[in-house]
Amino acid sequence: MKKKGMKKLNRMLEMPQEVYTNVPKFTITGFEELIIENYKGILEYENFFVRISTHIGIVNINGLNLNLETMTNDDIRVTGKIESVELERVID
User: Fold this and answer.
1) Which among 55, 2, 45, 49 has a CA at the least distance from the CA of 25?
2) pLDDT per residue over 76-89, tens digit each?
3) What is the CB-side half-sphere exposure of residue 56 using CA atoms within 13 A?
4) Domains in the chain, ordered, with CATH?
């Protein structure tokens, strides 16, 4: 099935975009938890700074006592005292 036809079918089935594309989904709970779905990899990891690569860019997380709590092939969970989250767009 063509790409355009798949998009139309997925919209009709009301599937979230992150399910059928590589677009990341960010879920932030207060200042203590960030979950990123559809990430590519970890670029840098310190207890005060984390850089994560996604298919659309890089996520920079600044804070204190940052931990990579849960990692699967599909999502990653960062906990700690999150002070800021910055998105860097990657231009192909």
Assistant:
1) 55
2) 999 999 999 999 99
3) 12
4) 16-89 (2.60.40.2000)
